[in-house]
Amino acid sequence: MKRNSYISKVIMCVIIFLLIFPLGVVLLWSFVKIWPWPNLVPRDFGIRAFEYILNPNNKSIRILCFSVCLSSVVTVITLLISIPAAKALGVYNFKGKDFFKILVLAPIIVPTIAVAMGIHVAFIKLGLANTVLGVVLVHLIPCLPYGIRILTNVFEIIGESMEMQARVLGANSIQTFIRITLPLIAPGLLSAGSLVFIVSFSQYFLTFLIGGGRIITFSMLMFPYIQSGDRMMACSYSIVFILSTLVILLIIEKIVRSYYKGENYFYM
Amino acid sequence: GNNSNKEEYNVLDKEWKDILEDAKGTTVNFYGWGGSQKTNEWLDDFVAKRLKEEYDITFNRVPMNIDDILNKLLGEKQVDVKKGNIDIVWINGENFYTAKNNDLLLGSFTEKLPNFNKYIDKDSPEVKYDFGFAVDGYEAPYGKAQFVMIYDKVRLDKAPKSHEEILEMVKNNPGKFTYPAPPDFTGSAFVRNIIYDIVGYEKFISMEADKERIQKEVAPAMEFLKEIRPYLWKEGKTYPATIAQLDNMFADNEVLMTMSYNPNHVASKIVTGEFPETSSVTILNRGTIGNTHFLTIPYNAPNKAAALVVIDFILSIEAQSSKYDPENWGDLPVIDNGKLNEAEKKIFENIKLGKGTLPQSVLLEHRVPEMPANIIPIIEEIWQENIPVEGE
Amino acid sequence: MCKIELKNISKVFENKRVLNDINFTVNEGEMVSLLGPSGCGKTTTLKIIAGLISPDCGDILFNEKSIVNIPVEKRGAVIVFQDYLLFPHMTVEENIGFGLKMAKIKRAKRIARIKEMIELVKLDGHERKYPNELSGGQKQRVAIARALAIEPKVLLLDEPFSNLDTRLRESMRNFVCDIQRKLKITTLLVTHDKEEALMTSDKVAVMLDGEIKQFGSPWEIYEKPVSTTVADFFGEKNYLTGEIKEGIFYCGIGKFRTSFNKYSKVIAMIRPEEIEITDSEENCGLWVKILSKQYAGDKIYYTLIADNIQLKCITNSKNIFEVNQKVWLKVDFDNIVFFESE
Amino acid sequence: MCKIELKNISKVFENKRVLNDINFTVNEGEMVSLLGPSGCGKTTTLKIIAGLISPDCGDILFNEKSIVNIPVEKRGAVIVFQDYLLFPHMTVEENIGFGLKMAKIKRAKRIARIKEMIELVKLDGHERKYPNELSGGQKQRVAIARALAIEPKVLLLDEPFSNLDTRLRESMRNFVCDIQRKLKITTLLVTHDKEEALMTSDKVAVMLDGEIKQFGSPWEIYEKPVSTTVADFFGEKNYLTGEIKEGIFYCGIGKFRTSFNKYSKVIAMIRPEEIEITDSEENCGLWVKILSKQYAGDKIYYTLIADNIQLKCITNSKNIFEVNQKVWLKVDFDNIVFFESE
Amino acid sequence: MYKKLKPYIMLAPVMIIILGIFTMGLVLGFFQSLGYFPVIGLNDFTLKYYKEVLLDKSFIDSFKFSIYISLISSVLSVIIGVLLAYSIFQSKHKKGIEEIIYKLPIIVPHSIAALLVYNMLTQSGVLARVLFSLGFISEQAQFPSLIFDKNGIGIIVTYIWKETPFIAMVVYTVLSNINEKLAEAALNLGANKRQVFWRIILPLIMPSILSSFIIIFSFSFGSFEVPYLLGPTNPKTLPVKAYIEYTNPDLTHRPYTMVINMILTFYSFLLVWLYSKTFKLISKFNG
Ligand SMILES: Nc1ncnc2c1ncn2[C@@H]1O[C@H](COP(=O)(O)OP(=O)(O)OP(=O)(O)O)[C@@H](O)[C@H]1O
Ligand SMILES: Nc1ncnc2c1ncn2[C@@H]1O[C@H](COP(=O)(O)OP(=O)(O)OP(=O)(O)O)[C@@H](O)[C@H]1O
Ligand SMILES: NCCCCNCCCN
Ligand SMILES: [Mg+2]
Ligand SMILES: [Mg+2]
To answer: Could you identify which of B324, C156, E107, E131 might form a hypothetical disulfide with C79, taking C-beta atoms 3.0 to 4.6 angstroms apart as the criterion?
Structure first.
C-alpha cells in the first residue's frame, strides 16, 4: 500500500513537471532579450514587453478587463443552458439520445472556417453582427460542447435520486436545483466552467468575424504577436493571459467553495 | 457620428474643408496586421495622439489579419451591409486585387487628398501599380518595403550577393541556411528574388497568368533551388512555415541567415535585443524586389470623411518622417524626394539610420518591381510541386 | 390528515409487471403497514404515491382528489427511503432542516425544531457531521428526523428501522407512532418485522408479486390469513393435509377432534407456538421425538418428528428438552386455522 | 479455517474514540455475533479486520500471525457491507462473479458457481439487471452472494439480512450458516436481531460505546448478562430495586421468597416473558391492573401497574385480557437475575 | 406526455443555439463546396471541386497524416491524462498545490502551446541545449529533428502537452464523484490495486474518457494552428491545406477550402459515430 502510493506520487510529479517546465520557459522568455545557442541561460533580459502591455495607449489592460467580463458572461450562459441539456443526456432515457450526444459535439467536429461565413451572414441578417450580444452568442458555439459533455458525465454518476428526495421534502424544482443539484454538481461545474471560460477567452477567429473589430478581446491583441514570432511579446502576453485566467478561475473556485462551505455556518 | 448616409455617398464629391469638418470629433477605425510592436506603438502613440490634437479624431486601431478583414467585408457584401465598421484597411498586393475586383472598396479617392497631390509621384509605377495591378486611386501608398537578407557579421564574414554566392555559402555551411516555405509572404518573395536573379525580372512584369509558360520560364530557378536543397537546414526536407520561425532560428543561432521584406527589420530587432548587434542586411546585386504597402477605404466604411483625413495625415511629411525613424518604426517613406523643399529634405536626412541597415539610396538603386499578383500563387504552386520532398 | 386511495394502480418495468391492479385505502390519520417479500413492489408503491414514479394506469386520490398530475413537492407525501439518500453536502443539522427551509420556516423556529428532532433521534453531538461520517443506523435516524421535521400530511416509511438495534428501534418506533397519532399523519410503513407491523398499525396490507393479497386489521391478518402464503409471512408454519369427517380431523400424525366442518379436504395450519410439548403424559397427547433445537433467548425453536412428519415448535425457554428426547405433544385443534385444499 | 484475534484495538475518528481497547478471539470456523447499539463501532471493527481502516493501535492476528501490514486483498476477509456497495456498472451476474474473476477462476467454473449462487439467493431472472434496477432486498442478496461466491476464509457480515422479510431472512440465514459450517468459515456477524444473534452464533460479543462489554455463549449472554445495559440489549426488562434479607426479596411491589443471597442491596431483573398473568388466583400471586396492551400476533405485550410500579409483560396470545382488567401476577423469583446495586 | 417531452425540452435551448447558428453556416459552407458562391460570381453547382480534391495525390497523404496525428496524440493524451488523474487522486492525502498547477496547460491557447513546444524541441531549443551542456550531443545537428518533421513529433507533443491536463481534469472530476467505498468493496473481494483500477475505476470513468477522447480527437483532427506552426512542409494536415486555401486571396479558391472542410466534417462524424458504436459493443460483451 505504502509503496504503491509512493509510485503514484513519483508518476504524478514527473508528469506535472513535464507539463509545467515548458511554462517556466515561457515565463523566462517574456524577459529574454537574447538567448543564443548553446547557452543554458539567456544572455540578456529586458522588460520591453511588459512595458508595452502596461502602456495605456494600446489599451491592453482595459481590453483584458473587458475580455474577462465577456468570457464570464459567456461562461455563465453556457453553464445555465448546459445544465438542463446535460441532465437530460445524463439521467434520462429517450429516443435519439445517442444522436443528440454526437450532435452537441458538432461545433468541435466541424471546422470553424467551414461555417464561419454562413454564421457571419446570418448574424448580419439578424442584426447581431458587431454587437456584444452577437459575440456572446457566437462564443456559445465552441463553448457548449465542453460544458455539456463534462456535466453529462457528472449527471450520469450522481443520478436523480437526491433531487427526488428533495422534491419529496417539499422543495420545488427551483429550490431543488439551487440547494441540491448545484452543490452536487459543483465540482463538475467548476471544471466545465473553467474550460468554457478558457475556450471563450481564447476565441479569436469568431470574435474577429462577428465582433467585426468593434469588440476587441485580449486574444485578438495577443495572436498577432504569436504569429509574428516576437517571442518576448508573445510570451509576455501569454503570461498575462495565463495569469489573468488563473486568477479568475481561482476567484471563482474560492467563491463557489466559500458559498457552499459558508452554508455550514449560517445555513438557517 | 455627424455624417448621415447621404453625405457618405457623396463624400468624394465634397470639398476638403467640408470633409475636415465632417471628420471632426469622430472616431476612425483602422484595421490592419497587429503583429509588430513597433508598428502598433507608432500608430497608438504617435498617429492617435496627433490626430486628436490636430483634427479631433479618435483613432481606433484594430489588429486584424488581412484575410479576416476581407472575409468580413465579403460577408457584409453578401448581405449588402451599407454601413460596416472598417474605415481604413492596411493592404497591398493580391489582397488589394481581390478587394478591388469584388467591389469591396470605396473607389478612387487619392485625388481628394491634399498631401497625395502635393508629395506623391503619381506616375511612379510603385504608386500606380500594386503587384502589377492598377491602383486607380483605390488605395493610397503608406510605406515601402524591399526584400533584404539578414546575417550576423560575426558568424558569416561574407554575405552572399547573388544566387551563385548563395550556393557557395550553403556548400560551405551545410544545414545552416533555409527559407520559409511559400506561401509564406517572405519565403515566396525569396523564391521570386532567386527567379529574378537567375532569369531576370523584365519578362514577368506583364506576363499572363499561364501556368505552362511560367513553368518554363522559372525552370532554371527551380533547378537552382533543387541544387541547394541538400545543403539546406534539415537537408531541405522541410522548411519553416513562417518567417517568424526563421527569425527565431536565426536569433537562436540555428541558421546563419534570415530574410525580411522590411529593410529596417534588422534595426528594430537589434533594438529589442532579439538579434545580435552585429546583425546586418545584404541585398542581391541584380536587385531585390521592392513593393509598396497601401491604405484603402472599404465600400461601406462608416466614417469615410475621417478615413480620408487620416490617410491624408499619414501622407504628411511629419507622419512619413516619423515613420521612417528606426526608433519609431523604420518604414521607408513613400514621398517623392523631388517634391520636397530643402527644409523638408533635411528632416529626412537628419533621421539616424538604424543599426545594420543600408541607406535608402543603396536600396533604391537595387529595387526591382514585383510580379503581377496573379502570377505569384502559380509560382508558389510550382514550388510546392517541385521542391518539397516527401519523407524517405 | 389526508385519506389516501389507490385505484387500479399498475406499473410495468421492462416488460415485467411489478404492480398489478393495486387497490387500497388508507384513512385519515391511519397507520397502515405494507408487508411483502423482497422485490414484491413495496418501494415502487410508495414511490408512486409520492409521485416519484408515475403509474402506467390507475389513479391515486388524496382526500378524494386525484393527485396524479400534482408535482411531487406539492403532494405533501414524504418518503423515508430504504437507502437513506441523505444529502452528502449537508451536515446532519442541515439535512434535517432542509424541508423546513423549503417550507420557509423562520430561522429561530427552525433551529428549535432541528434541535428537538436531533434529541428525539438521539443524535446529539453529531449535528455537524456529514453523512459519510455516520454509521448506518445514524444515517437512518437522520433520514427519519428529516422527514418528520416537516410534519407531513402523508408519511411513507420504507423499512425505516431496519438498521437499528432492538431498543433504539422500539424507541424510534414509539416516537414515530406518537407523532403520527398526535398529528394524525396518514402513514404507510414498509417493514419486514412482522411484530412491528402487527403492533403499530391500524391495518396491514400484505403484498405478494405486485398484488395486495390481504388487507385488514392486524388481528385479521394474523388470525384469519386468506391463504397459506399470507400466513407464512408471519413466521414458518406447520401444515397438515388431511380430511375432516364428523368432527374428526384425520391427518398424517393422527386423528384429532375439531369443531370445524366447512370443508372436508383441508389443510390445517398450526403455528409453531401453538404446539405445546411436555415430558409428562397428559390428556390426548402424541408421542414425538426432538430432532433439533435452537436457543433464542426467551424462546427455544424445536424441530419435532412424528410419523415421518416434521413439525416446528416454539416454546418459552423454561422447559428445556434435549435433542432426541421423546416428548408429548399437545395441539388445540379447535382453535387452529383450516384452509380448503384441492 | 482461520482464527481471528483482536488485541487492544483502538481507533479515533476526529478526536472521538470510536473503538477503545477491543480484545476478542474468534476461533476457527466459529460464528460470532457482534451486537451493539447504532454507532457503537461495529462496522468500524469489521473494517479494521478486513483492512479497510487501519487501527490507531493494537494488533490483529489471523492464525497467530499479525496481518496489520497485509494488504486488504490478501487477507481473505470479505465484508458484506451494510450499504451493499454493489458495482453499479456490473450486472447481478457480474457482481457475483467479480471475486471469482479476481481469483482467476476458470470461466466455466465461474459461470457454474454464479448460477448456483443466484439460485441460492433466489434471484433467478434478475441475472442481467443492474443494481439500480433492483429492490433493496435484492441488492442485499446480491451482496451476500458476491461475498459467499469466493468462499472466503473469514466472513464479515454487516447486518446482511436487515432488508429481507422474515422468511427470506430465515432461509438466507440458514443458507449462510450452512455454508459457514460446511466450509468452516470463521464468521463475524453484525446484527440487530437478538434472536438471530442468539440462534446462529457460537459466541456473542456485546459492544457498547466502542468497548466489548460481554463476550460469551448465547446462553451466558442472555441468561447471565454482566450488566443491565447488556441485559437491556435483548429486549426491555423490568427492574426492581430492593433488598434481600434472609431469603426474602423486599421491593416496591411486595416481598418474595428467593434463594439468591450474594448481595443484600440488589436490582432484580425480570424479563417481561418471565411474568405470568392469570385471572384465577393461584398460589403466591400479586394483584395488578392492566394499563395497556399491544397485539403482536403470537404474543401480546401488556403494561401492568402494581403499587405505582409499571411492569412489562409478554404473554402468548392465548389468554387475552382487557385494559383495566385486574389480573393475578406470578413471578418465579428463584430463577431471575439479581445485580448488585450501589 | 410531459414526462416524455421533458428531455427534449431540456435540450431545446442548446439545440436552438447549436442548430440555429450552425445550420446556416453549414449550408452555406456546403453550397460553397459545390461551387455556389454568388458574391464572387460563382453561380453553378458542380462536383468538380470534390473531384479535384479527392483525386489530388497529396490529399490521401494529408488525410493519413491528419488521422495519424490526431489518433496518436489523442490516445497518448488519454493514457497519460488518466494516469495523472489517478495518481493525483491516489496520493491525495490533503489538497495539494498539484491539483491546481497541473491544469495550467489547459489555460494556454494552442498557438502558445505550439510556441512553447517549439522553444523546447527545436535543434536550438532548451532540450538540445541541456543535452549539449551535458555532453550528449556535440553540435545542434545531432539533435533529432522533432519540429517540422515528417513524423509530426512536434505536433503530437504539443497536443499531448495541451490535452493531457484536459483529460486529467475531466477524469479527476469524475473520480472524485465516484463512491470510493466501491474500491474498498473490490479490494475486499480480493482485487489488487491494479485490478481495482482496471475493473472498477476505469469502467466507471470510461464514459468520461470516451467523451473527452472524442473531444480532443475531433479537435486535433479539425484544427490547423498547431500543424500549421510546427508541421512539415509536406505532407500537410487537411486543416492546414484548407487553411492555406482559405487564406488564398483569390476567392475562387474558396470552394476547395470548403470541400476539404466538408470531408473533414464528414469523416469526424463518421469516426465519432463508429467509435461510440464499437465502444458500446465492447462494453456489452466484456462480461
Ligand atoms: N469517517 C468518520 N468520521 C468521523 N466519525 C465517524 C466516521 N466513520 C464513523 N464515524 C463514527 O464512528 C462511530 C462508529 O461508527 P460505526 O459505523 O462503526 O457504527 P456501527 O456500530 O456500525 O453503527 P450502525 O449499527 O448504526 O451501523 C459512529 O458514531 C460514527 O458517527
Ligand atoms: N428501474 C427498474 N428497472 C427494472 N426493474 C425494476 C426497477 N426498479 C425495480 N425493479 C424491479 O421491480 C420489482 C419491485 O421492486 P421494489 O423496489 O418495489 O421491491 P420492494 O418490494 O421494495 O423490495 P425490497 O423489500 O427488496 O426492497 C423488483 O423485482 C425489482 O427488481
Ligand atoms: N484554441 C484554444 C482552445 C483551448 C481549449 N482546449 C481544450 C482542450 C480540448 N481541445
Ligand atoms: Mg424496497
Ligand atoms: Mg454499521
So the answer is: C156
**Backbone angles phi and psi of D297, in degrees to 5:** 75, -105
Domain C4-232 has CATH 3.40.50.300: yes
B67 touches chain E (CB under 8 A): yes
Length of chain B equals 392
Overall CATH class of domain D236-340: mainly beta
Highest mean pLDDT of the ranges C81-85, D79-83, E6-10: E6-10
The ligand 3 atom nearest the CA atom of A142? 3
The answer to whether the Cβ–Cβ distance between D52 and E287 falls below 8 Å is no
Cβ proximity of D1 and D184 under 8 Å: yes
Q: Say if CB B270 and CB A254 are below 8 A apart.
A: no
The whole-angstrom separation of Cα B108 and Cα D264 is 125
Q: Could you tell me which of D84, C85, D134 has the C-alpha nearest to residue A161?
A: C85
β-pairing verdict for C65-66 and C77-80: unpaired
The span from the CA of C83 to the CA of C81, in Å, is: 5
Backbone angles phi, psi at E207, to 5 degrees: -60, -40
Q: Rounded to a whole number, what is the distance in Å from the CA of E91 to chain D's nearest CA? A: 17
Share of chain E above pLDDT 90, in %: 25
Of D81, D103, D150, the CB nearest to E185: D81
- Check: CB of residue E112 under 8 Å from CB of residue E199: no
Per CATH, C4-232 and C236-340 having the same topology is answered no
Beta strands in D200-342 (DSSP E): 203-208, 211-216, 238-245, 248-251, 254-257, 265-270, 275-278, 286-296, 299-306, 309-316, 326-331, 337-340
Residue D282 clears pLDDT 70, i.e. is over it: no
**Phi, psi (5° rounding) for residue C102?**
-60, -35
Whole-structure pTM value: 0.83
Q: Which of residues 247-266 of A touch C (CB under 8 A)?
A: 260, 263-264
The domain spans of chain C are 4-232, 236-340
Are B272 and A48 a contacting pair at CB < 8 A? Answer: yes
The class level of CATH for A49-261 reads: mainly alpha
Neighbours of chain D (3+ CB pairs under 8 A): C, E
Cis peptide before E235 (omega within 30 of 0): yes
Q: Is the pLDDT of residue B8 over 60?
A: no
Per-residue cell: A84: 438542463
DSSP one-letter string for A231-262: HHHHHHHHHHHHHHHHHHHHHHHHHHHHHHHH
Domains, chain E, with CATH or none: 60-238 (1.10.3720.10)
Strand, coil or helix: A116: helix
Residues of C in contact with D13 (CB under 8 A): 133
Q: Where is B71: in which H helix or E strand?
A: helix B66-78
CB count within 10 Å of CB D119 equals: 11
Q: Concatenated DSSP letters for E4-54?
A: HHHHHHHHHHHHHHHHHHHHHHHHHHHHHHTT-BGGGTB----SHHHHHHH
Residue whose Cα lies nearest atom 5 of ligand 2: it is: D133
Indicate the angle between helix axes B304-314 and B317-324, nearest 10 degrees.
60
- Rounded Cα distance between A24 and A211, Å, is 33
Question: Which candidate, D223, D231, D235, places its Cα nearest to that of D312?
Answer: D235
Confidence of residue B139 (pLDDT cuts 50, 70, 90): very high
Give residue E287's pLDDT. Answer: 33
Name which of A74, A77, A101 is nearest A89 in CA terms.
A101
Cβ burial, residue B286 (10 Å; 0-12/13-18/19+): middle
User: For residue C1, which amino acid is it?
Assistant: M
pLDDT digits (tens, 9 = 90+) for D2-14: 899 999 999 998 8
Sketch the domain layout of chain A as residue ranges. 1-46, 49-261
What residue type is A230 in one-letter code?
Answer: D
DSSP for B139-170, written as a single string: EEEEEEEE-EEEEETTT-SS---SHHHHHHHH
